[in-house]
Specification:
By secondary structure, the protein is mostly beta strands. The longest helix has 5 residues. It is built from 1 helix and 11 strands; from the N terminus they run βββββββββαββ.
Amino acid sequence: VQLQASGGGLVQTGGSLRLSCVASGRTFSNYVMGWFRQAPGKDLEFVATINWSGVREYYGDFVEGRFTISADTAKKTVTLEMNSLKPEDTAVYSCAAGSDTTDIIIGRARYWGQGTLVTVSS
């Protein structure tokens, strides 16, 4: 499974961004997908996870209803819609695929995509 993330950029506080992660490989639908982020000098942080049926969604506590994760099996794409962005959301965001939701939440992903930088200016 290969993962290609995109959509990062510079946005002002309160703004919105949409990140996309395109999966490839015949077995991509066997995995649970997730987004993580890592800010400079900080540990990797779980952001959100979803399975390809779109049934099970979980978010990191810091999200507080601002982000929405979705999955489109036909397009092999997982999207993270981020609203009401804050300067503390500045980080490199990466998508990942894991065996199950628990693995994703604890950061034990099997496949990782490259990161996309999100910068929120104050």
